[in-house]
Write a structure and sequence with these properties.
9 helices, mainly alpha, single chain
């Protein structure tokens, strides 16, 4: 896979890098008032540049698309169509994306999964598509990109050695 293929997969499902970067900006701008939209976009692109993120995205989107075509075996097909609340494999897959950036990535994902900010909510609420995995994957990407900024930002506090 490649970064461009990941972007193409997202765009085919109605998600842009900019829409993910908007979520990142919302999460981090309170902590870094000088944060720019360009920095958020760069962080999203860096996360999407990771091969394991690309593979995770490919897997989740394939499952959503197979469910839309009714090509999954039962009862999996019915679980996907219902977006069963106790089915946690979608969150589990997305958590793999956040793990690279530690606990801040994990807590950011939990927050986004709960409030469904921006395009995450749009994906979750669509009635004409199955986005069981995609909404969580986008939340994982946004949480990872947000955590990446927190870890790397010039405004992050540095503590002196004793």
């Amino acid at each position: 896979m490649s970064y461009q293929l990941a972007v193409n997969l997202l765009e085919r499902r109605g998600v842009s890098v900019d829409s993910i970067a908007e979520i990142v900006y919302t999460l981090q701008s309170a902590y870094y008032p000088d944060l720019s939209g360009e920095e958020c976009i760069a962080s999203v692109k860096a996360v999407l540049g990771k091969r394991e993120v690309q593979y995770t995205l490919m897997t989740g989107i394939a499952l959503d698309e197979l469910a839309e075509k009714k090509l999954l075996p039962q009862p999996f097909q019915a679980i996907m169509e219902a977006d069963e609340s106790l089915y946690g494999a979608d969150e589990t897959l997305a958590l793999g994306i956040t793990g690279v950036y530690g606990m801040i990535g994990l807590t950011g994902f939990g927050y986004l999964d709960k409030i469904k900010l921006g395009v995450i909510g749009e994906l979750n609420d669509r009635k004409d598509a199955i986005n069981v995995f995609l909404d969580d994957l986008v939340a994982g990407i946004a949480a990872a990109a947000s955590a990446r900024i927190a870890h790397r930002h010039d405004g992050a506090r540095v503590y002196p050695l004793a």
